[in-house]
Amino acid sequence: MEFEAVIGLEIHVELNCTTKMFCDCPNRPGDDPNVNTCPTCLWFPGAMPRFSQEALEKASILCLGLSAELQPLSAFDQKVYYYPDLPKGFQLSQAHFPLACGGGIDITNEDGKTKRLRLHHIHMEEDVAKLVHEMEGRLPISLVDFNRAGSPLVEIVTEPDFRTPYEAMEFLKALRTQVRYVGSSECSMENGTMRVDANISIRPSGTNQMNTKVEVKNMNSIRHVGDAIAHEISRQSACMQAGETIILHTRLWDPDKKLTLPMRTKFEGPCVPDPKVPVIKLSPDWIEKMRSRLPEMPAARAERFVKQHGLTDEEANFLSSDPEVARFFEALIGQGIAPRTAMHWLITQLIPAVKDRQLDLSSSPVTPARFASLLRMLSQDEINANAAREVLVYLFDSDESPKKIVVARGFQQVSDPKALDGLIDKVLTAQPETVAKVRGGQDKAMGFLIGQVMKAAGGKANPKIIRELLVKKLSEIL
Questions:
Q1: How far from chain centre, in Å, is Cα 428?
Q2: 85: nearest Cα among 27, 135, 150, 32
């Protein structure tokens, strides 16, 4: 019997607000343990929560960026359960009346077709504290860090529209891009600002039945999400083939062993309305005000890049996939750099150099103005491509202008035919076999001769002038 998977995702996104959701403590979970706390986020009896306007705005813009519909009324509930990271015994979450419903993201699936993956709803909730497991001598101990307690989250709950690990990974990539664009979160699984749980069940192919699902946690990269889903599909299929019953429970992904392991049975505690946090009422005018703050989203920006700048769909989608990259590209265009030159050098040279140095474009010393100055010198034949790549390295280590670096280190391009004539004559004399190949119509042989002249000129010669001179001299020889 053939099976197909039915997959839904639950994505927790930590909002990059200045303070926590219900108090004025700094929202900086990475600080020293338990320094950003107060009676409210420590959940002392009698402490009253004060809902953050910034959290509401960032959550609302995130919802609108995912095409979800903000609800006129939403409310917080007490999601009851007890665990050491939640000692008050309940979590404030929007279980019954979420902030937004609907929405979705379009992806391209394995067959190259566009598929709409729907969202069920998006709700706000407070984060719990963080458990730190250590060894004290030979005894394991668990410590609690309350810096994260009360941090503002949204949980994005999808419809069970996914059928393959690939679809789940493509969805998460697109979701991450959308959320980063609206500026509500960094969405880093590695740093914990985006956490994903996958609910997986299987059924006989071609049927519409919904079977018992298994939840998988502990995935800290998009690749791990795909691997965990793939393993769970295989595991559940083997269980069904063997006649075993699938039981509702939660499993952990072990990235080293590349398998899922049982964690605990699934427990759903009661959710009751919280009397301390008022109902949230959103007026149509306020919703439109939030909508007006939405930036140009990735798909629209990519379409514009194709129309305005003549890029391919693939090039435009790559540049639009990261808001920092897109802004940098447009800044180069604004400084008079040709779109294709800006795209090529940004993708092939600057972005790899920034990643090698573990920087971001926004924190790189190579600003759009400095990079544009370098590319302008290249387009004006003041330097060649090899020199431009070398100058780029110096730009990371010096605050000097590209012009000063070029002059100080002798990177100027040699374009004077008189200065190149002698070098070309020496190369032609030393390469009679290559000259014969050029006579035979082999284009690669011409490229070799240009390379030899460039080498003789210390890499500083203008390849365009070299080609022109070679063509002239070879025509005389031939």
A1: 51
A2: 150
- Rounded Cα gap, residues 248 and 137, in angstroms: 37
Q: Which tens digits make up the pLDDT trace of 157-182?
A: 999 999 999 999 999 999 999 999 99
Element (H, E) at 55: helix 53-65
Mean pLDDT of the chain: 90
Residue 411: which residues within 8 A CB-CB, separation 6 or more? Answer: 383, 387, 390, 391, 405, 460
Residue ranges and CATH numbers for the domains of the chain are: 3-284 (no CATH), 296-408 (no CATH), 417-477 (1.10.10.410)
DSSP character string of 21-40: SSSSSB--TTSSTT-S--TT
Model confidence pLDDT, tens digit, residues 78-116 = 999 888 888 889 999 999 999 999 999 999 999 989 999
Task: State how far the alpha carbon of 372 is from the alpha carbons of 152, 273, 318, 322, 338, in Å.
Answer: 39, 57, 20, 20, 10
Handedness of CA 91, 95, 98, 103 (dihedral sign): positive
Distance CA 268, CA 249 (A): 11
Could you give the residue ranges of the DSSP H alpha helices within 242-322? 284-292, 298-309, 313-320
- C-alpha 413, offset from chain centre: 39
H or E element, residue 382: none
Cβ–Cβ < 8 Å for 20, 152 = yes
| Cα–Cα distance for residue pair 411/457, rounded to 1 Å | 11
pLDDT, one tens digit per residue, over 207-262 is 888 889 999 998 989 999 999 999 999 999 999 888 888 999 999 999 999 999 99
Conformational region of residue 102, where left means phi above 0, alpha means psi within -120 to 50, and beta covers everything else: left
Would you say the pTM of this structure is higher than 0.85? no
Q: Which amino acid is at 29?
A: P
In 3D, which of 294, 376, 304 has the Cα closest to residue 341? 376
Q: Which residues of 372-386 are buried (b: 16+ CB within 10 A; e: fewer)?
A: bbbbbbbeeebbbeb
| Residue 4 parent element (H or E) | strand 3-14
Report the run of H or E that residue 458 belongs to, with start and end: none
Q: Which residues contact 62 (CB under 8 A, 6 or more apart)?
A: 13, 15, 122, 154, 179, 182, 184, 185
Q: Is the dihedral of CA 218, 221, 224, 225 positive or negative?
A: positive
Q: Which two tokens stand for residue 26?
A: 């700094």
pLDDT digits (tens, 9 = 90+) for 26-77: 999 889 999 999 999 998 988 999 999 999 999 999 999 999 999 999 999 9
Express the helix, strand and coil content of the chain in percent, nearest 5 each. 40, 25, 35
Q: 43 by DSSP, 3-state: which?
A: coil
For residue 148, the SS3 value is coil
